[in-house]
Design a protein that fits this description.
single chain; 21% strand; disordered C terminus; binds zinc ion
């Protein structure tokens, strides 16, 4: 190889990598001479993805959040387990062929792990929990039923969906059952309004679903402070979106050591103002990238997310953007071996034509080069699938 970008800060040029039949790297070293005009980048980590969600049908899918949530719920209703597994497998293979080799996946039905076993991907699967109406006993019962055992290359966790869809008791039950949580947090102004004052479209939606408890009183604080009060803000809780942070929230998140994942495709879909990611990074928050779901993303590729991120945050250097899509993703999922190449780690990489590492990273981040091939867990993602 002309060069191997071991992680966004370190490069071997020229380099060589050898892996074993189990897909583990056994040698990673400087080579005497380059054997091909190729550079290897670490495989991309998609830190937030709902693989089972399909694009919404209809000519004009909603772009306002609560109608969109209702449309997604309607689209998922009645889907059979086999269909959900097929959807997850299809979505995963589309992402894999474009360089995403690891996922932080939100499993809404319990079907994802079976689907993911058929792919060479790895990561963490978070079983989703919702229930704004659930008390302590019902919450514990739900968590017992939904806890997943790790399977194959996937670790597991729980995803109490969001502060507007999960009761304090359900958050407590999730926290007691798993260290590894991920929560949609401060995604919209409506969410903050609901938590602060108990009003707005989320109240109407919960009422309509029969999930607003009798005598409900709003916590009276924003989402981040609410999660902090519930004891959920922690280094092992991955926060998703954080569009609508309030004064003091950046320090609160940084102080707790919680990572954040942003989804550029979703920001574009809902025409949102991009959150101040460079400021978050300066505050020491690990910020990762995710594709979210095909219901709010009209491209479907981590490479597109990188390109979008480069456009949304033009002040970030290519190496910082690549770090969001690789090492920060591994940190976000609490699987720090992901998103970097190291001896003993997984042979997960994206091969790109080129010879000069800095130039290759810049071209890749800006979407100017496509992968020549992708290797996940030592397995080459079939070349035929790389074609669009
Ligand atoms: Zn999501």
């Amino acid at each position: 190889m002309r060069c191997i970008v071991v992680d966004p800060q370190h490069t071997l040029a020229p380099g060589e990598v050898v892996w074993d039949a189990g897909g583990r790297i056994v040698q990673l070293r400087r080579a005497r001479r380059a054997q091909a005009d190729l550079c290897l980048l670490p495989g991309l980590v998609d830190a937030h993805v709902h693989l089972q969600l399909e694009p919404l049908r209809g000519r004009t899918p909603p772009r306002a959040f609560v109608p969109w949530v209702e449309a997604v719920m309607a689209a998922q209703r009645g889907a059979l387990p086999l269909q959900l597994r097929q959807r997850a497998r299809r979505a995963a293979s589309m992402l894999l062929r474009d360089g995403a080799v690891a996922f932080g996946e939100i499993d809404g039905s319990g079907q994802s792990l079976a689907a993911l076993r058929a792919t060479p991907a790895s990561g963490r699967s978070y079983r989703e929990l919702t229930g704004f109406h659930l008390g302590a006993e019902a919450s514990r019962a739900l968590v017992r039923e939904r806890r997943l055992a790790a399977a194959g290359a996937f670790a597991t966790g729980l995803s109490p969906h969001a502060p507007y869809s999960v009761s304090p008791e359900l958050f407590a039950a999730a926290r007691a059952a798993s260290r590894y949580l991920t929560v949609h947090c401060a995604e919209t102004a409506e969410e903050q309004e609901f938590l602060r004052r108990g009003r707005g479209p989320f109240r109407d939606l919960l009422q309509q679903l029969g999930r607003l408890p009798d005598g409900f009183r709003a916590p009276g604080i924003g989402a981040v402070r609410w999660l902090e009060r519930l004891g959920v803000l922690a280094p092992t809780t991955l926060l998703v979106h954080c569009q609508e942070l309030e004064r003091g929230d950046v320090a609160r998140i940084a102080g707790a050591g919680a990572p954040v994942v942003v989804c550029p495709g979703t920001i574009d879909w809902f025409d949102r103002t991009p959150p101040p990611v460079p400021r978050w990074l300066r505050a020491g928050i690990p910020v990762a990238l995710g594709t979210d779901s095909r219901a709010s993303n009209d491209a479907w590729s981590m490479r597109h997310e990188l390109r979008r991120a480069a456009a949304l945050w033009p002040d970030l250097a290519p190496s910082e953007l690549l770090a969001m899509a690789t090492t920060a993703g591994g940190r976000a999922l609490r699987l720090p071996g992901l998103g970097r190449l190291r001896r003993g780690g997984r042979a997960d990489f994206v091969a790109v034509r080129g010879s000069e590492p800095r130039r290759v990273v810049e071209d890749f981040v800006h979407g100017r080069v496509r992968p020549a091939f992708v290797v996940a867990g030592g397995v080459r993602v079939p070349a035929a699938r790389l074609r669009r």
